[in-house]
Design goal:
Sig_transdc_resp-reg_receiver; phosphoprotein; alpha+beta; membrane; Beta-Lactamase; Rossmann fold; disordered C terminus; Heat Shock Protein 90; 799 residues; HATPase_dom; 5-stranded mixed beta sheet; disordered N terminus; cell membrane; 5-stranded antiparallel beta sheet
Length: 799
């Protein structure tokens, strides 16, 4: 810490930091001199090491030469044991100042004679086994054997110090030191001169930079003295100042512009604040609307809970009554209870269908299938279904055409029927007395069908008319309490009308009834026949199809190939009642064998069968040369199915469910072409002439149940249906999708054939979802089929 009296403690600076802070001149001088010093030191060290090694080696060689000479001269004196002569011989070593000690050993290893350079010299005699040399810290030792006639008679030992080597090293060091000092002086002088070429431009650049920093003057420039890197650095410095000067000018201009923009932005912010205040007010309104929508949804949920619980309570309550033995034996009460359960189930199914339709619409998955259909027939069906409800309330349900009637229009007949059911049903629900009128009009020029549903009911306040087409919303809560309903019907109808290329709007006033105006695109009308409008009361009669006369077939032999036992039995009875002789086969393999053994006038072939399907069987028959007409019977009605049947060799194509009139007409037509037939009659429907009938769908069979044979078929099918649905549920539980698909396909044709068209669409949906392995769709469809199965079972089939 620093004392408060202002004094500061000394700081320790690292040498490397000191070097970093030194000037470039100092660094260059240190670089030059240090480099020279290091180079010279390394050179001198290398030379010294080499010189010392050479001197030591020369000294060893010289001493060995002297030892050899002494050994040679000592042979005689050692032989005669002349000790004085030996000492004289050794005294010759005085001429070698570095030799401190010398001696001669006799053959026993005893010192025979010795020489000392001075009195201070230590005796160096040693026991050496073999001749040789060694260098120690004290000096060099040499031992050489004395031989006479190949016999060792003694040895010579010499020891020399290293004084001459030390003197040589000292003189060498003095020389190297002088050279080193001189080299450093010369290098320093040369570096001192050269560093100016480097440090001066850098110093000038640093002074210019400090001046620019201090004076904020970006016009200052340096003058590069050369074109080397320092000159390039000076040029870059000047270029940087140019850029800064330009940037400063641009910044000043930007500041001026910014001031103008700030003033402009201030005005914009003022306006934006005003807009945000308006938006906040709008948001508050939206929040209020959202809260209202939330309340409406909550009220809808409460209402829906009531709507669902009411039929559920009826179903559960009357089911419980049926299980009580006290009431279970009364046929009238059983019938009453069952009718109540059926009505509650129908109502509950309608609620669920509305919710599912709305979910599909909001998820963007609403699908419409455009195909030709009769608008007159659609209106006729709606009137037929709702007429009883209107009569129960004492209302008149009127219907009329204000223009000529198109034979057909291109739209989704099912969705159009649903639309009208919603509109007419609402009109009946909200009308206490008076009438409900349906008025249809065709605009041929605009290709638009307009249907007005007018009632004399409670009417809709003007401020509520836009809300009634929103989901979960009715005119007010009192409407829900008094009339019930979910508030979904009109919302669905509005979206359906848009999907059909038109719109739906309302004209109403409170207390004066309402008019709902539906517009639907008709598609091209150029080739569509326009029929005269029927009388207004023509639609008030029944919609049951009837025929002017029965179709009789000539005597003919027909092969019926069908894997479904109920379908096989029903079609056989239809054909035999019409006069034909029928042979049946349960699969294509049996049929191929039958045609090879007998001749048939016509073949009815189901296309989906086990063992061998109809496509393969028809192809096999044609390849065998069979020319008999083959009429395909299949539950597939998708695009391309007819072409597939014809390509397999079939002559014609009929879809299931099988309609008696269509079947017999097609059979009669092909028999006629073979020269055996009659003309098929036409069907009169609701005042309009149509070429082919469409039996009504529902939970009761459309077959003539007053005929004992047909009634037995229907009863057999109802019993079969229970087991069939159970088999489908079991197949799904065991994940046997292949078996489930086959069961669904069989039911798709068998249900319609027995007069239960209501089973056809769910069976087709189940087959598709099974092929796609869609568990959620499979479960939903199985549940729907199970419900339909129970309702068919509980519905009396006898006429």
């Amino acid at each position: 810490m620093t004392p408060h009296n202002g004094s500061s403690m000394p700081t320790c600076t690292h040498p490397l930091q000191t070097l970093r802070n030194a000037s470039i001149k100092t660094k260059l001088l240190l670089l030059a001199t240090t480099s020279v010093a290091m180079a010279l030191l390394m050179a001198f060290a290398g030379m010294a090491v080499n010189d010392i090694r050479f001197i030591r080696s020369s000294k060893v060689d010289q001493l060995e030469s002297q030892a050899k000479m002494l050994a040679f001269n000592s042979v005689g004196v050692l032989t005669f044991q002349d000790e004085s002569a030996t000492r004289e011989l050794l005294r010759s070593m005085e001429m070698y100042p570095t030799v401190e000690y010398a001696c001669i050993y006799d053959e026993t290893g005893r010192v025979f004679a010795e020489y000392r350079a001075n009195e201070l010299s230590d005796a160096r005699a040693r026991e050496i086994q073999t001749s040789g040399n060694q260098i120690t810290d004290a000096g060099v030792e040499v031992l050489h054997t004395i031989s006479d006639a190949g016999e060792d008679i003694g040895s010579v030992y010499l020891f020399a110090n290293m004084s001459d080597l030390q003197a040589h090293v000292q003189s060498y060091l003095m020389l190297c030191g002088g050279l080193l000092v001189g080299s450093l002086v010369v290098a320093g002088l040369f570096a001192s001169q050269m560093q100016r070429l480097i440090s001066s431009p850098i110093r000038e650049l640093a002074l210019a930079a400090n001046r620019v920093k201090r004076e904020r003057d970006f016009t200052i420039r340096v003058q590069p003295a050369a074109s080397d890197e320092l000159g390039q650095l000076g040029g870059a410095f000047n270029a940087m100042l140019d850029e800064i000067q330009h940037s400063k000018a641009a910044l000043q201009a930007a500041n001026d512009e910014l001031e103008d923009r700030v003033e402009q932005r201030t005005a914009e912010l003022t306006e934006e604040i005003t807009q945000r205040q308006s938006a906040q007010e709008a948001l508050q309104v939206a929040c209020t609307a959202a809260e209202a929508a939330s309340r409406a949804k909550s009220e809808f949920l409460a209402n829906m809970s009531h709507e669902i619980r009411t039929p559920l309570n009826g179903i559960l309550g009357f089911t419980e009554l049926l299980t009580n033995k006290s009431d279970g034996n009364d046929p009238r009460k059983r019938k009453e209870y069952l009718e109540t359960i059926s009505a509650s189930g129908t109502h509950l199914l309608g609620l669920i269908n509305d919710i599912l339709d709305l979910s599909k619409i909001e998820a963007g998955q609403l699908e419409v299938e455009l195909s030709p259909c009769s608008p007159h027939d659609v209106i006729n069906q709606v009137v037929s279904v709702l007429r009883a409800r209107a009569q129960q309330k004492g209302l008149k349900l009127n219907c009329a055409w204000s223009s000529r009637v198109p034979e057909s229009i291109v739209t989704d007949g099912g969705r159009l029927r649903q639309l009208l059911m919603n509109l007419v049903g609402n009109a009946i629900k909200f009308t206490k007395q008076g009438n409900v009128t349906i008025d249809a009009e065709l605009d041929h020029f605009c290709e638009m069908l307009t249907i007005r549903v007018t009632d004399t009911g409670i009417g809709i306040p003007e401020d509520k008319q836009a809300d009634i087409f929103s989901p979960f919303v009715q005119a007010d809560n009192s409407v829900t309490r008094r009339y019930g309903g979910t508030g979904l019907g009109l919302a669905i109808s509005k979206r359906l009308s848009a999907a059909l290329g038109g719109d739906l709007r309302v004209e109403s006033s409170e207390g004066n009834g309402s008019v709902f105006i539906l517009n639907v695109k008709t598609g091209p009308l150029n080739s569509v026949a326009l029929l005269d409008a029927p009388p207004a009361d023509a639609l008030m009669g029944t919609t049951t199809h009837h025929f002017d006369q029965e179709i009789d077939l000539p005597k003919s032999n027909i092969l019926l190939v069908e894997d479904g036992e109920i379908n096989r039995k029903l079609v056989r009875i239809m054909l035999e009642e019409a006069g034909a002789t029928v042979t049946t086969a349960e699969n294509g393999w049996v049929a191929v064998n039958a045609t090879s053994k007998a001749t048939f006038d016509l073949i009815l072939m189901d296309m989906q069968m086990p063992v061998m399907d109809g496509y393969t069987a028809a192809t096999r028959m044609r390849s065998d040369g069979l020319s008999t007409p083959i009429i395909a019977l299949t539950a597939h009605a998708m695009k391309g199915d007819e072409e597939k049947c014809l390509n397999a060799g079939c002559t014609a194509y009929l879809t299931k469910p099988i309609q008696k009139a269509v079947l017999l007409g097609e059979v009669l037509d092909h028999l006629t072409r073979a020269g055996i037939a009659k003309v098929a009659p036409t069907e009169t429907l609701g005042g309009l002439t149509e070429a082919s009938p469409e039996p009504p769908s529902g939970l009761k069979s459309t077959l003539p149940l007053d005929n004992v044979v047909y009634r037995e078929i229907v009863e057999e099918f109802v019993e079969f249906l229970q087991h069939h649905v159970a088999e489908m549920q079991s197949a799904y539980a065991s994940e046997n999708f292949e078996s489930l698909a086959k069961l669904a396909h069989a039911l798709k044709g068998a249900g319609g054939t027995a007069g239960f068209d209501v089973l056809t669409a769910p069976s087709a949906k189940l087959q598709k979802s099974t092929n796609d392995i869609d568990p959620s769709e499979i479960e939903a469809t199985l549940a729907e089929l199970a419900d339909l199965s129970r309702r068919i079972h509980e519905t009396p089939q006898r006429a």
